[in-house]
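Good morning C.,

I know you're traveling, so I'll keep this short. The sequence:
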Amino acid sequence: MQAGTGTDQTAPERRRRQQKLGIVIRDKMDKTVVVEVGRRVMHPLYGKFMKRRARFMAHDEANACKVGDAVRIEETRPLSRHKRWMVKEILKKAAD
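The tokens, ready to paste straight into the viewer:
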């Protein structure tokens, strides 16, 4: 009797990486931008929609993003103490 050889087992599937849309609010750092992502949530008691925002530090390899650009960011492995996102694409350039 042999132990399982692993031929009938499949590798666990990777989970799909999360993506978010946001606006670049800071681009002073080298190869890093700060992206603000807004969302609307309903108040649990009163039912009113409230604005909530989160800020993410994202890796911008080409330093192509400028303040005001609309971008799509994608979750990635930790790149530094605060960076866990990468700029996937620039959706709309800011008016100069």
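Safe travels,
E.
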